[in-house]
Amino acid sequence: MAMRITPSVLNADLSNLSGEIARIPSADGVHLDVMDNHFVPNMTFGLPVVESIRQRTEAFLDIHLMIANADRWAPAYAEAGAESITFHVEASDAPIRTAREIRAQGARASMALKPATPIEPYADMLGELDMVLLMTVEPGFGGQKVLDLVLPKIRRTRELVKTTGQDIWLQVDGGVSLETIERCAEAGADTFVAGSAVYSAGDPDQMVRDLRERAVEACRH
Length: 221
Ligand code: DX5
Ligand code: ZN
Hints:
Elements: E1 4-5, H1 17-22, E2 30-35, H2 47-56, E3 61-66, H3 70-79, E4 84-88, H4 95-104, E5 108-113, E6 131-135, H5 151-164, E7 169-173, H6 181-187, E8 191-193, H7 196-199, H8 204-220
Parallel strand pairs: 1-8, 2-3, 3-4, 4-5, 5-6, 6-7, 7-8
The structure holds D-xylitol-5-phosphate (DX5) and zinc ion.
D-xylitol-5-phosphate binds next to β2 and α7.
């Protein structure tokens, strides 16, 4: 199974985003955390900043919308040229319509679940998605510890994804590091967000390669 590392720039130098993205050429994409201080108690940046980043980099842009009213805003990020748009199901009244609107713009549609949100109610709509993001921390801040109680949900989601017969990526976000990536990979994740682990490393690009190698190793067992 291909293992993808999509570092989050949340804890990088936010005044120099394109420079920070250029430091991780080995990454499979860059994870951009959009926060509105409503859906989560923190605020980062929005559409104009993502549009500017799009002008500056060819990198695969993996947008994680932690915003209320996701249905209203998600398609605009696809229109801005981002390759993947993730909206939270807890912030969406019409997840199927929103996923279809994202795909209609040519982007990958992805849906995120907070740690306490079960996957089972959404089993029948997985075919509408290109990725499922399972949060391994409560969203809002970098530098938190993985909640191991999410591991069984990663396993159940992997089983549900298998039944679709489609190549739906399974991403985890929050607390991913050299210490924790193995158990997430063993449980069935194939796409990993790592923020502080990558940007606090002396050589962020080497950390990306080390994380990927460890995930690949974990899956061989
Ligand atoms: C948290 C964000 C994450 C965060 C991850 O709500 O969605 O993407 O940046 O940071 P670390 O890897 O430090 O937990
Ligand atoms: Zn995120």
